[in-house]
Amino acid sequence: MTEKKSAEIASYLDFAVSNDASDVHISVGVTPMVRIDGKLTNIPNSPVITPDKARELISTFAPPEMMTTITQKREIDFSFGYKAMRFRANIYFQKGTMSASLRLIPKTIRTIKELGLPPILEKFTEHNQGFVILTGPTGSGKSTTLAAMIDKINTEKRKHIVTIEDPIEYVFEHKESLITQREVGSDTNSIARALRSSLREDPDVVLIGEMRDLETIEASLTLAETGHLVLATLHTNSAAQTADRIINVFPPHMQQQISSQLASVLLGVVSQRLIPKVAGGRVLACEIMLANNAIKSLIREGKTYQIPNVIQTSASEGMITLDKVLAELVSKGDISLEDALNYANDPKSFKMMVY
């Protein structure tokens, strides 16, 4: 960013950082906006963005070659550094004008304990092979959780860790482990292709930014099956839904095979949400499913609808449903009943837990 041209966008990024925002939005016809504690708010004393101003602001953090690509492809993902932060940028067109959504990514990677994550996540990092899936909606902290898990391995073990992302979010330093970070677009043409290639790169641990298609999921299962620890994210709302999504992405004639494959490699699913706190800020709520023998049998037999029952009756093993976590947060006064109902997987049964 040149100093003169970047002063304006820098003021918006500084405002976002100082107010602990999660996102910055640049869109024509409105003033710049940020998302704080899950809610959008205007940046004070900022002008309404015009089409020319939007392009000018975006050009201060997008390199010239990126601007050319945006014009051709009409949308692009990349990341850039700013002071003590990184930003994941999505540049796109709407109604013929250029817009940007920027996600804040701290350069400092917090530990599992500092994030208030369930201790079971530390146990996942101790495995030499298997499949761990982080799920939840956009903005629920999945990337931050994965970064904490990777950094724990990096700090404690001599491993080769390969990350495949679109784009790279957290940047890791080599500690005890060797870390190779590959970005779609600049380092590889696709996540699926990079996963297939990783088999020849001597990895111990593979992080997949997001599983989006059949090819990526199939390659992920193969990696987990061939002696690697695979950590990945998926956009689903519950552990049971996660198993269904993975299996149903395949054609019917392959689903039995995929069910068996998933059951054999799965270590667990963590489904998380960031929920507004009554006192301000947000609190993390995590559903935990561990792939014990009962869960594996249900996946193999196509009875994933019974998974919530197993989670409910396996608290002694460390499992817990999202609705149970929400009920506990309401009882402690951390979150409101209204917000809890908005996030509950089964609002009807959730009400019975609370009342």
Please provide a written account of the structure.
This protein has 355 residues and is of the alpha/beta class. It has 2 domains: 3-106, 2-Layer Sandwich (Beta-Lactamase), CATH 3.30.450; 120-354, Rossmann fold (3-Layer(aba) Sandwich). It is 39% helix and 25% strand. It has 14 helices and 13 strands. The strands form 2 sheets. It has a 7-stranded mixed sheet, with helices on both faces. Strands 3-2-1-6-5-4 form a 6-stranded antiparallel sheet, covered by helices on one side. A hairpin with a 5-residue loop joins strand 12 (266-276) and strand 13 (282-290). Helix 7 packs parallel to helix 9 (252-265). It is globular. The termini are far apart. 41% of the residues are buried. The model is unreliable at 1-5 (pLDDT under 50).
Radius of gyration over alpha carbons?
21 Å
Measure the end-to-end span.
55 Å
Shape category: globular
Report the strand count: 13
CATH class of the largest domain: Alpha Beta
Which strands sit side by side, in order, in the main sheet?
9-8-10-11-7-12-13
The oligomerization state is single chain
Largest sheet: 7 strands, mixed
- Indicate the CATH topology of the largest domain: Rossmann fold
What is the count of structural domains? 2
Query: Would you identify the CATH architecture of the largest domain?
Result: 3-Layer(aba) Sandwich
Write the layout of secondary structure elements.
Elements: H1 3-18, E1 23-26, E2 33-36, E3 39-42, H2 51-59, H3 64-73, E4 75-82, E5 85-94, E6 97-106, H4 120-124, E7 130-135, H5 142-156, E8 160-165, E9 178-183, H6 191-198, E10 205-208, H7 214-225, E11 229-234, H8 239-248, H9 252-265, E12 266-276, E13 282-290, H10 293-300, H11 307-312, H12 322-331, H13 337-343, H14 347-354
Parallel strand pairs: 7-11, 7-12, 8-9, 8-10, 10-11
Antiparallel strand pairs: 1-2, 1-6, 2-3, 4-5, 5-6, 12-13
